[in-house]
Amino acid sequence: MDFKEFNLDERLLKGIEAAGYEVCTPVQEQVIKASMKEGAKDPDLYVQSQTGTGKTCAYLVAVISGMLKPENAGKKCLILAPTRELAVQIEEEAKVLVGTSGLKAFSVYGGVGYEKQIANLKKGVDIVIGTPGRVIDLNEGGNLDLSNSNFCVIDEADRMFDMGFYDDLRKILKKLPEAEVRQTMLFSATLNTYVKNLAWEYTRDPIEITIEAENITVSEITQELLHVSSDEKMKLLVGILKHENPESAIIFCNTKRSCEVVAKRLAINDIKAEFMIGDLPQSKRLAIMKSFKAGNVKILVATDVAARGIDVDDLAMVINYDLPVESENYVHRIGRTARAGKSGKAYTFCSEQDVYNLPAIERYIEMSIPATVAYPEQMEEDKSAGMYIKTENWHGDDELDNRHGYRKGRDGDIHNKRRDNYKKGDYKKNDFKKGPSTGSGTARHSDYKKNNHKPYIDPAKLAGLSYEERMKMYKDAYAGSRSLSSSKGYKKDNYKKDGYNKNGYNKPYNKKGGYNKNARPNSRQQQKPATAPKKTFWQKVKSFFGR
């Protein structure tokens, strides 16, 4: 359906044309139709739709169309987003769509100073896009009035809850006009209890719209899973990037430290790359995104959380350097390279360290990912082998930057402390030191291969095999006697046996009160209390009458 077929304001249609939109996507068609439903006064909407389906344009067109109605003159709009990057992207799209309508859009978010944001708000803003933390701060400081925000959009509501914003959302919604005079639109990729509770509590008879997720993981994206040992992952990554030379690529790692290490190791191998993690100063994050979108930086290494809100239309390739811990993140990752009907390519590295995550992912996407063993011809020399990579101290060694966030403070940041000594693309020589205790990387790699020889798997044998058969072959080749189908771990010794309790010292009495003959003596052993002497007959009589 064409946008011109809707009864939209001419000023809005000019903005839509300027943004390059012509034909509606399914979510855009249904949202705009529902918002313009005859007889309904700005109805509330609850929309379940995946990212990359055009939902941002959908709710912006619906909101702007409502704000341009004569009866809504002077009313404001508040759009809440989980990340700063997403807030900035919504602002950029809103500024184009408002066209010549006279409406002004502006985004507010944490990680930057308040002065500029407060100055812009004082000039008058009709559409405020912000992260929950900064919106609360500005409101409580008297710089952002929410009492006349009769339009409210909550984008990526499920991600909001995962990042710990549930209480903040409730606090903000209570500051807005009553639900009867407010239009609320709630967008979420998945359904969960928190999303449903929020919809039921703060909306009035919402119109539910569900956009079935397209099977992008099968039809549009060329997937390839490469079995590779962990010590050869960097060689394979360098080989793929140098052989295929993608116009743009995002490499996903599970931890923030891994992102920084991978980016710096790529730099040693003459591949320019930047890393994006949640703890980078906001100014650096925006500069990196600007360079990536402009094509000045082709390779971006990121965690799942940091990549939320990154919207690149022509992303050529996604590489899962680490297999994601959560199955749905696999779909979120590779789905970035097949948007608006375009095709894409996704490589996934599977090593002995994370192969245990593979069964859940294949069950989630309801297919077996085409798999093979990485060929030596696919790899290139890793110049960073054996080097010690110095990383910044803003993140811990094993701290996952996962989708749950575990935030402290505002905007989902795990650390409040910011570091400004990060220099984009400028790595010092002492960042890469030879480790004296580990010896030569080449020598260590040679010894490793001698002591850990892995039999070659013929890729032809993998074709047509079931998951169980491929896992058995992979187990024999890479894991030796270790089981890949079970991760129950070992059972701790029962210290309650032989007189020991869980604290490690003797427990001389059993549950029935008897003495435990197996109890081992030690200094902490308790003594059995002495029994009272038996009373004689006359003592019992005296005791009875003396009561």
Would you spell out the secondary-structure blueprint of this structure?
Blueprint: H1 10-18, H2 26-35, E1 45-48, H3 55-67, E2 76-80, H4 84-97, E3 105-108, H5 115-123, E4 127-130, H6 132-140, E5 149-154, H7 157-162, H8 166-175, E6 183-188, H9 193-202, E7 207-210, E8 221-227, H10 233-244, E9 249-252, H11 256-268, E10 273-276, H12 282-294, E11 299-302, H13 304-307, E12 317-320, H14 327-334, E13 344-350, H15 358-365, E14 371-373, E15 387-389, E16 432-434, H16 441-451, H17 459-462, H18 467-479, H19 537-545
Helix pairs in contact: 2-3, 3-4, 6-8, 14-15
If you had to describe this structure to a student in words, what would you say it looks like?
Helices cover 34% and strands 13% of the residues. It is of the alpha/beta class and 547 residues long. It is globular and about 70 Å long. It has 3 domains: 3-210, P-loop containing nucleotide triphosphate hydrolases (Rossmann fold, 3-Layer(aba) Sandwich), CATH 3.40.50; 221-479, Rossmann fold; 490-547, no CATH class. It contains 19 helices and 16 strands. The strands form 3 sheets. The chain has a 7-stranded parallel beta sheet with strand order 3-4-2-5-6-1-7, sandwiched between helices.
Kindly report the spatial arrangement of strands forming the biggest sheet: 3-4-2-5-6-1-7
Category by helix and strand content: alpha/beta
Q: What is the CATH topology classification name of the largest domain?
A: Rossmann fold
Proportion in helices: 25-40%
Give the name of the CATH superfamily of the largest domain: P-loop containing nucleotide triphosphate hydrolases
Q: Overall 3D geometry? A: globular
Q: Roughly what is the average pLDDT, rounded to an integer?
A: 76
Number of structurally distinct domains: 3
Assembly form of the protein:
single chain
Largest sheet: 7 strands, parallel
Number of strands: 16
- In the CATH hierarchy, the architecture of the largest domain is 3-Layer(aba) Sandwich
DSSP helical segment count: 19
Query: DSSP strand (E) fraction?
Result: 5-15%
Radius of gyration: 30 Å
Distance between the termini: 97 Å
The CATH class of the largest domain turns out to be: Alpha Beta
**Are there runs of 5+ residues with pLDDT below 50, and where?**
395-455, 479-508, 521-525
